[in-house]
Amino acid sequence: MRTVGVIGCGNMGGAILCGLADALAGKYAFCGHTRTPSRLAPLTDKGVVVMPDAKALTREADVVLLGVKPYQVAAVVEEIRPCLDRKKLLVSIAAGISLKRLRALAQDACPVIRCMPNTPALVGKGVFALCLEDETLTQAGRDEALFLFGTLGLTLPLPEAQFTAFSALIGAGPAYVFAMMQGLAQAGVTLGFGHQQVRELVTALFAGSAGLAEARPEHLTQLRDAVCSPAGLTIAGVNALDRAGLTGLLVDAVLAADARGREMEE
Fold first, then answer.
1. pLDDT, tens digit, 9 for 90 and up, residues 169-182
2. Which of 8, 38, 74, 261 is most buried, by CB atoms within 10 Å?
3. Which helix (H) or strand (E) holds 20?
């Protein structure tokens, strides 16, 4: 049985480890290491083995996932490098650490994969971009990475050149969605709904709308227009959004995030 190990079990690393342990119990073994061992206590009931240090984890694991902060990556990879070999996969979810940099840090001791998740991964609804461009990566390694992250949400192989764009659109995307949700909730409170009640209503609205968009093949504009009866209240609201330029604002937000991301990479 192959083993997945996660170094750095904070919000994202811990969520990935928890999700994999739930979805693949009996098919994979799991271990974790983090500077705050209490974070792993709830996962021991799922069969996750707590490792004393990063090197011990790397010796045990076939797939080593780096869940640490970007500024910690270099030190962690230097620490575990003696334990890496061609039979292992090293996966990093650290933003801004290029594949070239990861390979240099690992001294090409093993194949390397970059992964960019978004925060809905915390509830098993993530979107993951995977960079599978390391030429030492075998087809079996590619397939395994796609399988593992595919159990946690939508997984998309992407060239590294598109990672910043992915981050601007999908990685940052929950912030845009939550801003829209907050605006609708605020309107609901203004109309007399209670705070908790309107939160539940708006959350269900977004979940249901996303489910409809996933289930139906029509263009998103058609799905919007289907809600708008002639001379009805919905078209009045949509007209107000159009006058305010909501679509253009969303495009501008994504492009601004993309521009900032490219500045950060320089």
1. 999 999 999 999 99
2. 8
3. helix 11-23
Spatial separation of the C-alpha atoms in residues 236 and 228, rounded to whole Å = 9
- Give the Cα separation of 39 and 62 in Å (integer): 22
Rounded to an integer, what distance in angstroms lies between the CA atom of residue 100 and that of residue 134?
9
Task: Give me the sheet containing 63-66, strands edge to edge.
Answer: 49-50, 29-33, 3-7, 63-66, 89-92, 112-116, 126-131, 153-157
For residues 111 and 83, is the Cβ–Cβ distance under 8 A?
no
Catalogue all structural domains in the chain, each as residue range(s) with its CATH number: 3-166 (3.40.50.720), 171-265 (1.10.3730.10)
Q: Rounded to two decimals, what is the model's pTM? A: 0.86
Q: Are strands 126-131 and 112-116 parallel, antiparallel or unpaired?
A: antiparallel
Q: Radius of gyration over alpha carbons of the chain, in Å?
A: 21
pLDDT, one tens digit per residue, over 196-222 is 999 999 999 999 999 999 999 999 999
